[in-house]
Structure formats: C-alpha cells, structure tokens
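Lab notebook, bench 4. The sequencing result for the construct came back, and we need a structural model before the next group meeting so we can plan mutations. Quick request posted to the team channel:

Model the 3D structure of this chain.
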Amino acid sequence: MKGVVLVGGQGSRLRPITFDVPKAMVPLRNRPFMGYMIDFLRAGELDGAVLSLGYLPDPIKRYFDERDLNGFSIDYAVEDHALGTAGGIKNTEGYLDGESMVVVNGDVLSGMDLRVAIAKHKESDALATIVLISVEDPTAYGLVEVDHDMLVHRFIEKPAADEVTTSLVNAGIYVLEPEVLDMIPTDQEVSIEREVFPQLQAEGRLRAYVSSSYWRDIGTPKSYLAASHDVLSGAVGAGEDFDYLQVDPSVAMGKGVKVLPPVSVASECVLEDKSTVGGRSSLGPGCKIGEGALVEGSVLLDGAEIEPGAVVRGSIIGPHARVGEDAIVRGLSVLGAGCVIGEGNVLDQGIRINPGVVLPPRSMSFS
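Done. Here's the predicted structure in token form:
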C-alpha cells in the first residue's frame, strides 16, 4: 500500500514565509516538515509515497533525492495547473499499484497510529474512511456528523456557535479504495471534500475513524508556531535519543550567553555576548543573535539576523531577514525572506512583512 501526500498548494495562509519556502519544507526543530510526514507513513507500514506537487516542487524533490529512505519509494506527480484535492489524487494514479491507498493533506502533523485506521477501514465495506479528530472550537472547521455505526451522516461547513452538533472535524487523513479514483475526472479541478465525499456519503460507502492522538494543521502562522513548540518539547516526533537541548557543535557562543531548553540551534549560528535564546525557539543554519538580544518562543529560518538589543518573541523570521538594533518583533508577527526591520521599530499584533521590504529606523510601532 502506498500513500498520497497532497502538497500542491501555495500555502497562502502561511505567507510571507511560503513566498520562498514551500509549506512542506518549513522546518520543525530544524527538520523539514515533510521529513515528519514520511516518518508518519513509514510507521504506518506503507511501501512508499507519491507526492502530488504543484507550487515550488524543486526544493521538495531535492530534499528527498539527497536522502536514503531504506527502500521506501518516493515518486512525484507534478500538476501543471491547479487540480484541487481530488484532482491531485487522480494525478498520482499512474504511480499507484491498484490497491487501497492512504491520502494525507500536506499540512497535517499527526501522532496517530495509521495502522489502526487502515485496519478499521479494511474491516468495513466502505470505499473511503475519513479520520476525524475532536477540537475545542468546532466553528473554525467543517464538522462531520457520524452515526452509531461510524457511517458519515452529514457535513456541516464552518457552523455558527448555535449550530454546532459535534466537535469532530476532518483530520485530512483518508483511506481510499481504488474505485474512488474512477469517480474523479482526469485533468480537472475537483474537491474530494465537497464533491467526492458527499457522493460516497449518499451511497452509504463513507465511514469515519475517530482518533484521539496528537494532531495539528501547520498551515497558519499560529498553528505552525504551535507545532514547532510541540516538536521542540517532544510532544510529537520524539525518538529514544530525543534531546531537549539540541545545539550543533559548530555554534559560536560568546560570554554570558543563555540557551534555555527546549531549543534547537543549527550549524554555524553565532550567539554573541549576553544574548539569550529562550525556550521553544528554533534557529536555522547560519543565524546570528547580537549582543544582549533576546529570542524567545520563535522560529528563525536560515541566515536570519537579530541585531544587538533586539527582542523577538513568539514570531517567525524568514530566511536572511534582519531585525535591527533595539527593534521588537512579537505577537505572532511574520517576516518574509530578506526583509529588514530598521533600528527601534516595534512590530506586534501579528503583522506580516513581505520578502525584501526594508523598514527605515523607528518608522513603525504597534504596541
């Protein structure tokens, strides 16, 4: 059995980071998200995966082409135009083996045992099984009602608070029979959630499996940062040799530097005198933290620079972006690749700065 991973989207909810980095390659504890996805499929005892690609496919291909996956096969089906979730699955048909398949949205971080969901599907007569999870705020999602036999009863698209009848939502993980592919036209944009699943539900061939395991959609800055915190703390993806204080031997540290776990500091980083890297932070290769600067609860991508006295809290700093001296970036703000935040600026309230933008010193304050 193979997996199909849907990674063709542009990751627009995670911009400006995804202008330059495909969502599948954003790092968690300095490892691309797709590495965790493949671990998830391998733990489910699948034989390989077909990646349904579209936007920025080359970095994803390079990552896997440079790695030995010990017999786990990786194939690529690249869209030349948007095909939607069902169309993306159909586009992988030539790489599949005519057997059941597991389909996973390319922004789902999960700690569930995939083997259990597969077994439950095989015990039924369903053509498709949807994995469901329970969430605290169902109004932010489309809900899925099931009956006592775990047959899907109906779908409720982002209900108002007084319309909530269940807390179960689509986890973006499916087990499908090959007959489902016959329901999807070739080379057309089709949604599996809005077009294929309702048809299967009407025919009584759509079942659900409810998981209580860890699950998070990494597709927004808030959820991506939360996923980073979870991986750093070992809540998901932790092996036997997990280290809460992951600091590469090549990191250069000045005097009086504080590095507080859980943290990941990659190769060739420079931490100048009296700088602090607070817990739940991840610094990509080549980052530089200036004298007396503070980074806390944040993700810094490759080559980001935080100048002396600056503060970065609970935010995402893109590749080679620079936060100027005594500037403050906090409150889930996101800086795109190569942008410059001039001295003394204060960014707050989830502000997003596009790649390459330069803010003059002391020109912006949100506090």
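Residues 155 and 198 are 8 Å apart (CA to CA).
Will bring this to the meeting.
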